[in-house]
Every structure is written in structure tokens, then in C-alpha cells.
Amino acid sequence: MADDMATHYQMMEELGSGSFGVVYKAIEKATGEIVAVKHIDLESSEDDIQEIQQEISVLATCASPFVTQYKASFLRGHKLWIVMEYLGGGSCLDLLKPGVFNEAHVAIICQQLLQGLDYLHSEGKIHRDVKAANVLLSHTGKVKLADFGVAAQLINIKSQRNTFVGTPFWMAPEVIQQAGYDYKADIWSLGIAAIEMINGEPPHASIHPMKVLFLIPKEPAPRLEGRQYSSALRDFIAQCLTKDPDRRPSARELLKHKFIRSAGKTEALQELVQRKQEWDACKGITQNIKYYAESLNTITKPDDDDGWVFDTVKAPTMIAPQGADDILPDPDTQYLDRASEMIDDLHISEPPIPPKHAPNSTVRRTPTVDRSPSARRPSTKRRSSGFKQPLGLDMSFGNSPSTVRQFRRMSDKATTDSGYASQYQLSTDENMSPQPLLNEPSNKEAQLGRRAYNRGVGLACQEVLGTTADQEKREAISRLAEAWSDLEMVDPEGLYHIVKSMNEKFQNDPKLSGLVPQQPPQPETPQKPRLVLAQNNPHLKSHRRRQSALVPESSPKDVQLSNLPGQHVPGMEHTKQLSDVLYQRWSDGLRNRWAGL
Amino acid sequence: MVFLFNRTGRRQPSDLVRFIKDLLLKLHESPDAAKIAEDLGKQLSQLRLLVQGTQDVEPKREDLHMVIQAAIHEDLIYELARGIIHLPFQAKKDTQTIFSQILRFKLDSQDDAQPLVITYIAHHRPEIIIELCRGYSFSDCTLQCGTILRDALKFDIIAAIILYDQSAEGQPAVRVTDIDMAVPQDGNGIFWEFFDWIDTGSFAVSADVFATFRNILLNNKAVMTTYVETNFDLFFHRFNRSLVMSNSYVTKRQSTKLLGEILLDRAYYRVMIRYVARWDNLKLCMNLLKDDQKMIQYEGFHVFKVFVANPNKSVEVQRLLINNRDRLLRFLPPFLDDRTDDDQFNDEKSFLVRQIQLLPNEPVEPSTGA
């Protein structure tokens, strides 16, 4: 039945890929209608089939001209296909690439979004991830809310959530504080998205997302400053960014706002779509059009049904015949087979047609270098807040929709993508799946290197950054952080060796040796790695013994360390504590979503 | 015409309820009457506003209570459950919302008792639940029926109705007082249809039915464990055939995982002992270890480990393991060896390898008392 469904669609080129899977353009054969088909590889997601189902059920119960229309979903092997309405204009984030929007455009988009939000909210739904990347435009300028990866359905219209989801820069203070939030959280995010559209980036864009989590509740709400903006727009944003959710207006109230009432017709947004197409054309952007290639593992497994001996229960004395071992495929060769299949796949998914100039095709996958010229800072800045911080979350602004999902739900395409991946490795292409980065060289030193970065170096950079105010110094630190992060991606093994030899050199220098805790001899991780062992594991006991033996020795060292820069600055301990708490909440939130984490 | 005159004023909840009921009856007779469906949509959205309120207006408790009394009096809840399939898109959602509001309503005096409507359904109108289950046959209202059912299944008594009802369409459903848990089922009741719906439905239907099925197994253990014990063979025959051996990747994976969860659940201890004593069950899950898909292999492993870890293996299970000892010892070490981060998995895997090495050459009778 499911297979029949798949034949109803003629698959065309890839529109984009992300952690959630790959999106293709397709034609519904019966109607000739163009649709977008999202392929989610369930095999690469650990345990969230039920969550995916949740997402679908939120989608399937939406019917509004301001929300991307869900059409169908079905299984094809281990892939889930979700058929959605196709929106050819691209996302607002894409459309921002040629430059920021003017106020008239922002007014129209906000007016449309408010109607979308009003619909969702009256349905007891919260979007929870409103941002430019999740706003899609049609060719004709229609504006639709997309991506319900983290949307929530409230049973009671008045009830509250306190799950921690969204994308930091756009998150409302009450979401971060987990004091319980309701649909008003979307209004805050809309305000941030408005700033993003008029400014090119959300407030705090240059700051590390973890740090932003701490800033949003603490600092006064961001405001749009400057004479160049009309007072109506500034007031609109100020209204959206009311810190107290109870005093923040609802979508319906905001629809009456002066700035919104002045909004023109959506047709005017076609300018943005055209501008982007022209921009692509001028840039001579050669799209790497990738066509859909069936990559289902349809090859049936070698006939090893006789791999196990089942027939002997009634004849207990029978012993497996000598030759039986040959029938059982050697696990190694089995894996080799699988590897060669993967290689085959790789060929298949190589674009069958060489890259060509195609300004008309949708533009979600952008090639490397030219990024938001509107961003004031060098584009590398974004990366600093990007790829790798402690949780390995992809924070680049992109089209990566369900912010939280990205850890698990990987595009299976990405594994076969290495050709592109290497080309993009250091770029900030937000459409890129994080998968290639996780193509782990699985040797131990690389793992340790990665761990050293995640648990030590990365955090240390953040901490220091967090306690540094001077702009120039901050820039320098974040450049360093980026460099580490690049190294971690490209050569975790090298990172390991640097940290290791650094520690050894410190240790050998009489004055610097205080920097390095002499015990335990685990130079690979400045922070102690968290061991996860079964409770009855004998190693655990000895580990505990060792640890408890260590405690008295290590404490004087701590005292020494606290004098060093980058450690607790007197009077600033609370910030450290707070960010710890936030980090904890963040990871708890994740753990709730995937018990396995 | 009365309601026309009252447009400006406030209509009594009981009038609204009666009006909706009449429309539902008409729609039942001529399901294609678009005009009636449209009218009904408007009225249901009013009723929803009454019981749910809006973003700005809290619903009034008295209103909700009056709606419930009228709905019971008019038998509206049953008519809604039966008619939901014919309602327009938005009205289905409104109906679901109305259900979830009235199902949770408690009188002030009955704080920890069952909500009013649950008691009413259980003792007077179990047909409501059966009608909602039948909604799974129509992919159009799966999501709504499923959500309502799971709301109601917070109470074991509702699970009992689903488990023990064997009524045919149009017949009165089982009465809670008539249930005899010791009598085995013939496999024709509404509960057994869940297996077919899961196996043959589209993804959306199948996933939703499965969620409800899982819910009954894991959240209504008080009735479910007895049920599985009484109907052990029938239950696992269906479970193995329709779910674990399903052609659908999702059904196969989800049900294998659920099987692992059941077997490791304390409440299902006696079920587990019986399950892992059977060699055909072991055979099934050894085949899962060799499935094409890694996640199914992985879930299969969590079932397989229960057989091997069982200290009192039956003779037939021992024999199957002994006959495959060499194969297993070759197969297990490299099995899913890319899960380097999964310490628990790797610990368990090496534990199993050790257990298989320690197997005797010939099966021995399990120690008494097993």
C-alpha cells in the first residue's frame, strides 16, 4: 500500500537537506501539482518515531492559508515520506541573502505571520520556533509558517508548557526560564524575527548561543534603534518584545497595530523573490542540482535464512553439518557487502547532471562562500556560534528547523555526500546536515580529541568569553574558539595531540606546572570525562575508589587555579552558576526528548 | 427557529446540546447532506467555545457542568462518537476538544474519584468507547478518535471495556459488571482488531493505533497483565504474526521494542517467564538479529537478551542456543559494533557471549521452582 503511494509522485531535484532528512521537489502525477516531499530516514533516528508522528499529527490538523499545508505521509521501507505544499519562493532567511528587507516588506510578512499565529493559537498550538528560516514564501508572495518540528499541541487552551525547545536567539525569556509558557512565546519570537528581517540578523547574533540563553532573561528586551526606522515599526517590535508574557499582546491584538494595518498586499513580496533570483544569477551561482535517486536499500539480504539452525529441536542429537559454517556468511564479508552497497549508493546519488547555471530552481542549498552580505560581521562570525559547542548542536541560523532534533535525525543522504561535504566542511552552509562532521574517524585519539574539545576547550573558551567585556578581546577569543572548533571538525586527533603535548609542556615547566592537575594522569581531558558504566561493572568500583582517593589532593589545586584568568572572577561566580544551571536544563530537556541521551 | 432569535442573547447550553443532537441524527440518516454538516460545524464550534473558552475568556465551570448534564440526558456523547466520521474537518477537531474537556470534568466533591463522564461511559454507555475504536477503520478521523481514546484510557475501566467487548456492530457493548476476567477471549472482540489496524493501516493510522495499543499495554497494567496471562497463546500469536513479523518497518520496529519493554516489566513477570520458555519465540527473535535494518536488529537484541539471561532456560530454548552456540559466538562480537558509545549495550553483549560460552553441551532440566 505504501509503495503504491510513492508511485503517485514523480520525484525531481533536491530542495534542501538538513538534519531532518532531505526535501525534494516532486510532481503529484494525478493532479500535476508540484509538491515538496520530505524524506525522513527512520533508521538513523534512535527513538523518536512517536515524536515524528506527533509532528505529523500537528501538521495534519492544520488547515490555514497561512500555514504550509500537509498533504500526506506514508512509509517507504524505512523512510517516511511527508508530502507538503510546495513553496517556490524559498525561506525568508534565503531571501535575506541579497540584503535586508525594507519596512513595507516586513510589515506584510509580519501581518501574514500574525494571521498564521492567530490561527495556530486559537487551535491550541504553539509553534515554538518562529524565525526567518521557518517562514516560507510562494512564488506569488504568499507567506506561510513552516516547520513544526518542535510545535506543541496544548490540550487546554490555557495550559502551559515548560519544555525547553526553540532556537536560542529567538527564544522568549519565559521559555528559557522554564517558568511555564504559553502561546505568547511565539509573539516574542516574531519580534525577534522582525528584527532579523530588517537587520539581517537577530539581536546577540555574534554571541555564543549558550551565552545568549543567559542574556535574554537578564538583559532588558532588545529594541530596534535608529532614526532610519519608522516609529510604527519600532513600537511594533517593542510590543512583541515585552518581557512579561502577560503584558505581551496576543496575535489578534497585534493585527490591529498601526504598523500591521499599514501593510500592503502580499504580491509586493514577489520583489523579494525576484531580487533573490537576480542575485543568484549575478553571483553566477551554480546550483548543484541533485536529483532524486532511489537509495532505498532494496537489495534483499543474501539468503542466509539458514544462518541459524532451527530444525533441530525435535532431533536433539543432530549436530550441525560440517559445511554449515560456509552457509553462514562471515560477518566480516557481510559488512563488506554493506560497505560496497554504500559505495554503490554513493555513485547513484552523485548528481547525474553536472552542476549548471539554474537561477530558477529553488535556492535552499547555497554554495560556500557568499553568505548574507547583510551581516555586518565577516561571515565567519556566524560559524563561531555555529557548529560545535558542548552539545554539538548546529546553531547556524539556517534552515535547520527543529533545532533540537539535529542530534539524532540525520539525513542518510549525507553519508553518501562526502563529495559535497568536504567542500562545505568549513562553510556555514546552514542547509548542510551535520552528519559529515560526525563521520567519525573512530580511532580512540580522535574520539578523545573530540571529547577534549566538547568537554574542555570549547567550554573554556565560552567561559572566558563570557567574562570578557572588551569587544576587541572578545573578537580575538571567539576567533580562537572558531579555530579550535575547525580543528575539532577536521582533525580531532591533532587536537588531542596538541592538548596532550601542551599539558605535558606545562607540566615540565616549573612555573606552569601548577596549571595542570598532576593527578589523574589523563591529560587528554582537562575536565574529567563522565564515565557511563553499568552499576555492576567492576571497573566502576575501582574507578570510584580512585576518585575518592583523589578528592583531598585535588582541592588545593582548585584554589590555585582560581587565581588564573578565565576562572571564576570574584563577584562573577553567579554567572558561572547560572550558565551551569542553564546548561543543565538544556541537557535535561534533551534527555526528556531522547531517553537514550 | 428559536436559536435565530437568541443569536444576540446567550443560548442555554442545554438548547445547544439538543440542537446538535438533532442535527447529528439527521446527518446519520443522510451522511452526504452538506448543508447539515455545515450547520453542525457551526454549532459544534460554539459548543467548543463554551466548554474550552478562548485565549482571553476562561470557560465557566457551571457551563461545562450544564453541558455535561444535557449531553448525558440527550445521549449526545454517543451520537458524537458515532457521527464524528461524517463531520467536516474543523468539526472533527472541535469534537475532539469537546471530548477532552468533558472527560476531565470532576465535581468539586469528587477530587480523587473518576471524572463524571468516565463513570457514565463505563456504567451506562460503553458503546461510546467502541464507536471511537471503530473510528480507526476510517483514516479520516484516526487522529481525533485516537486522542479521545487515549484521554479516556487514563482510567483502567475504559481499557477493560476495550479488552472484553465482543459485541457486534449495533449490539450493546459489554457491561463492566458482566466482565469475567477468567474466561478466555475468542479473538473476535474489538481489541483484536487493533492488530489488523496496526498492520494494514497507512502510516498515520497505524502509528496512532499503535500508540493507543502501547498505551493500553503499559499504562493499564492492572487489567492488561491478567488479560495477557489468560489469553497468552492468542495474544502472542497475533503479536508475533501481525506486529513483529509485519512488513512495515515502523510496525516491526515499534512492536519489537514494545515486546522488549513488556518482557522487562515487573508487572509482566509471569508473562515473561512463559514467553522466554518457548523455542519458537527465541527463533523469531534470532531472526530479528539478522534483520536488514540495524534498528530492528538492535531492538531484537533487547528481546534476545532476556532469553539468554534467563537463569532457568527451558530445555527447548537451551537446545536451540546450544545448537547455534558457535554461530552465536561468531555473530555476537561484531554485532552492531559501531555502537561504541553505548556502554550498556556493549556490557550486555559481552555478558551474553559469556552466558553462551557457559552453556552445557547438552540441555539440562531447569532447576525446580522455575
From TrEMBL, chain A:
Species lineage, top-down? Eukaryota, Fungi, Dikarya, Ascomycota, Pezizomycotina
Q: Which reaction does it catalyse?
A: L-seryl-[protein] + ATP = O-phospho-L-seryl-[protein] + ADP + H(+); L-threonyl-[protein] + ATP = O-phospho-L-threonyl-[protein] + ADP + H(+)
Which co-factor is required? Answer: Mg(2+)
This chain belongs to the protein called non-specific serine/threonine protein kinase
Q: What is its EC number?
A: 2.7.11.1
Q: What class of enzyme is it?
A: transferase
Q: Which CDD domains does the record associate with it?
A: STKc_MST3_like
Q: What organism does the UniProt record list as the source?
A: Aspergillus sclerotialis
Keyword annotations from UniProtKB, A to Z: ATP-binding, Cytoplasm, Kinase, Magnesium, Metal-binding, Nucleotide-binding, Phosphoprotein, Serine/threonine-protein kinase, Transferase
From TrEMBL, chain B:
Q: Return the SUPFAM superfamilies for the record.
A: ARM repeat
Task: Offer an example of a GO molecular function term for this protein.
Answer: protein serine/threonine kinase activator activity
Gene3D superfamilies xrefs? Leucine-rich Repeat Variant
- What superkingdom heads the lineage? Eukaryota
Pfam families the record matches: Mo25
Q: Name one GO biological process term.
A: intracellular signal transduction
Leader sequence segment = none
CC per GO annotation: cytoplasm
Give the family, as the similarity comment puts it. Answer: Belongs to the Mo25 family.
Its name, as the record gives it, is: Conidiophore development protein hymA
Organism of this sequence: Aspergillus sclerotialis
